[in-house]
Specification:
- The protein is mostly helical.
- Helix content is 72%, strand content 0%.
- It is built from 5 helices and no strands.
- It is elongated and about 70 Å long.
Length: 124
Amino acid sequence: VAGLSKERFVLASTALGAGAWHILVTHLAPHLAGPLAVRTALVAAPAIMAEVSLSVLGIGVQDPGVSWGVLIRDGLAATRTGPHLIASVTAAVALTVLGLTLVADGIRDAQDPVTKRLGANPFG
């Protein structure tokens, strides 16, 4: 927000008598939505991995709570008889983390003016 407050469009709105709330909602919020979404997605993926890892080790969420890590830890006892118990939960964790990373990358590419101008394909 500090860097955007010196932009010409903010200074022009201030010179025209716009209030702080109006400038925040109409000018600053649209410029902050993309970077905030990217940051949220990029922080959520490692947080999920950390929670799952700690729960598998028994340090994270404990048994009454439900967590992917708890499900993996409970499935370790039945690895020989039901390997699908671990495989399905692990696949769900991997797809969720991959999905969050791809969403963050897609939002970043959509917000990048060079990618928009050149019409570059983000997938190659």
